[in-house]
Amino acid sequence: MGLATAVFLAKKGRPVHVVEKNPQIVENLPKGSLHFHEPTLRKHLETTVKSGQLTIGLPEAAPFQDNALIFIAIDSVVQDLWKMRLSSFEQMAQWLGQRKTRHKRTVILKSTNILGFADAFRELLWKQPHGKTLSLAVNPEFLREGFAYEDTESPWRVVIGAEKPAERRALVDLYREVYPKNVPIVKTTCKEAELIKLGSNVYLSHRLAFIHELADYARQAGLDIDRVRQGIGLDERVGQGYFNPGLGFGGSCLPKDCNLINSRELDNTFEFKTAQTALEINQRLLDGLVSRLEHAVGQLQDKKIALLGAAFKADLDDTRGSQAVNLALKLAEKGAQVVVFDPFIDGAYLPGAEAIPLADTVDEACHDASAVVIGTAHSRFRRLSAKTLSGLVRNKVIVDYFRILNQPRWQKAGFTFA
Amino acid sequence: MGLATAVFLAKKGRPVHVVEKNPQIVENLPKGSLHFHEPTLRKHLETTVKSGQLTIGLPEAAPFQDNALIFIAIDSVVQDLWKMRLSSFEQMAQWLGQRKTRHKRTVILKSTNILGFADAFRELLWKQPHGKTLSLAVNPEFLREGFAYEDTESPWRVVIGAEKPAERRALVDLYREVYPKNVPIVKTTCKEAELIKLGSNVYLSHRLAFIHELADYARQAGLDIDRVRQGIGLDERVGQGYFNPGLGFGGSCLPKDCNLINSRELDNTFEFKTAQTALEINQRLLDGLVSRLEHAVGQLQDKKIALLGAAFKADLDDTRGSQAVNLALKLAEKGAQVVVFDPFIDGAYLPGAEAIPLADTVDEACHDASAVVIGTAHSRFRRLSAKTLSGLVRNKVIVDYFRILNQPRWQKAGFTFA
User: Are B231 and A188 an interchain contact pair (Cβ–Cβ within 8 Å)?
Assistant: First the structure.
């Protein structure tokens, strides 16, 4: 996300220097090598590095820049614990506030924060010798994974939180120059900007949780979720987009923000029920799936289960917050021998679940399996062959909550959909 | 809702006979007198009655019509208990199944049902001497109050549930003739149609519950909900419509369907958490409002509270499922003397809460009040005068969750917004 901002601003003719702690990234980025899947971003990274518009270096080598905009895009939250990386922010505050500045520098929080965090960070800044000379603004990112550059270049809106208009002026001026006039700039307080970011993701989580809850009901009652979904989504107040059931919602943002909005790290005591409910629906869906598997194949202890796909989103390699990974862990807890195949993920073990082996092929994963579960709706899984799998598995039991398989064809080949 | 269908089909040239039990309605309807506020419907009612295309009569006088489509649009649910009016449906089944039919007649359930109710009603029909000669279809209505005719004429979609294609054929043929080609007809099973109806309203309830929960948080944290709402709604996956906070969601459909989807009257055991959460958020909002009032004016015992507006929706007279009425009852429980004024409602007492008096004017309601609460965002309340009210009330405390008042102006006049 930080890089998308950097490359976009460089592309728009602003000199950008990226400060990065990891020496490997500092070495590899200028060669155009990205450690994540963002094709458009990679393309523009190469151009802007070549043109010299974008440079990158370690913090020690960072030039002190008077009159600059400083975007903070560090990984702000400890995964799974949903706690702010406070020590990182303390270091950051020290680093920023140690030098005297002649012209106003603006510090911009782009990372996701818990509610009230910008105010807490301001206090950290103000403790530094020259911290009070810095302006602070909150400018949350709203990027879809895989489209980081596209969404940075053409946002639905830009949100800039600050305590006083003067604190966000430099950033507003910059954005007015680089964005077309039809991109709305929403000016708020810091805390409002934080709520917009978290609230947006809670809303989206809840929309997905609803369609998953509906699908769960439909499955239990033997109804066709696609027809039901269409019947509801045709209401224009509901809409059909972002309304596909699968294993639940995942990724590095939605589950995280459903947790963060209810963080008790600062003085927040409000209980966001929508966020809580969305997480509960996600959880129940997996519990229900495990029950259905047990119903179909008996106790899972020592049974091999093939999980096809582990990424949280189709055709990506990112397993952060993935429901497929959560499912793998749940099945392993039941004593099942889970074997995962994901065409986008290399290695011997599942990232985020090191006890679970990764197979190199679909066939290897499915060989002798008591059940096959579609974990991610990767496009290539649509072309799985019921005939081939028939000859490999121990039981012809399959789970496809994404509905990417042609059910009648698989049923004809003897498979039962659990 | 039944009348909207009747008038629309009559307008499209089909002969329609309305069967109505209430003699007063039978007498008044042909004169164009409606007991609810639907301006367009009233206009077309007059035309179709005059032209003889639409007739109305008591059940005893109903002509037996072979080869007919029979729409059931009775009030299907006992208000507040959320139970199906089973005895009405038993009578209906008897009435329908007693006569032999030469040509296929189709019975169409338009009323809202709990999940599986159509299947239960089919069993009732089949117990009748000639019940099995009837076709049964479920064709839920999706009408916005105040726009019943418009939404019947130009629906976003038509949903027709039936067990076999033959059972819905007559209805599909009719709708293909009366609707333009671009209106999608979604063909489902009976239970899927029921789920589409309930699920749509649960989804809409939850969308409204989310914006109310967000507003509750914003109020507690002193944030501007309008800016936050805009920042979130500008995401095109979220949208800005149907996203206005107030006292919660109400009306005769949304709270009802959030309850009905979790009905245990038939064999459903699934817990729809989204529905439950939406109802809880509605409830918490009112509890919070009462606390804020107590904080502002002290114990409510014997204090006069003016409630301006009792309808569930702006510029309508319908108090069914109204959060303003729920609030009035909550305040009365606390011992407050609640006085309600609603320009659209006549009478001495609040419909649905007969212990609570209705005032004839804003001034009468507000005279000597310890607090004034906006209960409904009726347009005319936007023009309330802070100056006039200043001279009437005991405490200048006002609650406006709808944000229809100009807060700075009212604050200048000495009012505190609780």
Answer: yes
Q: Under a CB-based contact definition with an 8 Å cutoff, are residues B37 and B317 in contact?
A: yes
The nearest alpha carbon in chain B to A158 belongs to B231
Q: What is the CATH number of the domain that holds A340?
A: 3.40.50.720
List of chain B residues whose C-beta atoms are within 8 Å of the C-beta of residue A274: 206, 209-210, 213, 277, 281
B154, closest residue in chain A (CA to CA): A235
Best of A139, A277, A280 to substitute, by most chain B Cβ atoms within 10 angstroms, is A277
Sign of CA dihedral B404, B405, B406, B411: negative
B200–A272 CB contact, under 8 Å: no
ipTM of the shown complex: 0.95
Which of A173, A188, A203 is the C-terminal boundary of a domain? A188
**Using one digit for the tens of pLDDT, what is the confidence trace for A144-186?**
888 999 999 999 999 999 999 999 999 999 999 999 999 999 9
pLDDT digits (tens, 9 = 90+) for A247-266: 999 999 999 999 999 999 99
Q: Give Cα B122 to chain centroid, integer Å.
A: 27
Cα-Cα-Cα-Cα dihedral sign, residues B408, B409, B413, B417: negative
Does the reported pTM lie above 0.90? Answer: yes
Q: Does residue A109 contact residue A70 with C-beta atoms inside 8 Å?
A: no
Nearest CB to A200: which of B203, B235, B241?
B235
Q: Residue B90: left (phi > 0), alpha (psi -120 to 50), or beta?
A: alpha
What does DSSP assign to residue B31?
G
**A317 belongs to a structural domain:** yes
Distance CA B255, CA B120 (A): 23
Instruction: Express each pLDDT in B47-101 by its tens digit.
Output: 999 999 999 999 998 888 888 999 999 999 998 889 999 999 999 999 999 988 8
